[in-house]
Amino acid sequence: MDNVIGTITDFTGEQIQVVDANYDNSQMSQEDFLKVLLANFQYQDPFEAEDISQFIDDTLSLRQLETMNNFEEAVQTLTSGSSSTLLLQASNLINEKIIYEGNTTYIENGTGKIEFRLAENGDIVDVYIYDNEGNVVKSDTFANLSAGTIYPYEIDEASLGTGYYSVAVIARNGEENVEASVYSTALVTGIERDGENIVALYEYGSIDLNSISQIGG
Q1: 197 - beta bridge partners?
Q2: Which of 169, 194, 192 is nearest to 180 (CA)?
Q3: How many other C-beta atoms can be found within 10 angstroms of the C-beta atom of residue 2?
Q4: Residue 65 class from Cβ within 10 Å (0-12 exposed, 13-18 middle, 19+ buried)?
Q5: In this predicted model, what pLDDT tens digit does every residue of 50-107 receive, in sequence order?
Q6: What is the end-to-end Cα distance of the chain in Å, rounded?
């Protein structure tokens, strides 16, 4: 407790801390508040009428504090249990292919899949697949695509080895560039806790579970 100016000894021999008169009770910890209430009860005279209302108020305060403590402990237990359950459930993703929002995609034996979505209508949309040296290994051009629609893009090139490739979707509407969201494939290699979040691991990093739009494929 802050603002302690001394200690006194009660009739049981226990040391009681004394704070100055300007101490802000709102800054008191729950533990200290309980100690003060319990000490107050020791000196309460329930047979004195002027003390009964204060006694009841103090009792109600103690009950409310106990309820708050129990509620907080229940929430913490529930949160901890939910996180552990989610971690265990997410482990089922290991060795599975997922579709996530990102532009690094996994191609296995020449085949793979991405998806993309435009923020606005696109007159011309170019899709490029790059190897890890920056070479274009596959490209296609589409015309007159609609905003908001998710377009699948299948990759079937026997010459492409198994591994990760970069994806670029460049869309235009007249002379204006159009924003495109890309959803790539990843092969999950592990699951771990990242702070308060659970993430899926793949060869090039980690993926927040909220970024996964599809499992399998």
Answers
A1: 194
A2: 169
A3: 11
A4: middle
A5: 555 665 566 566 667 776 776 677 656 656 666 778 888 888 899 999 999 999 999 9
A6: 59
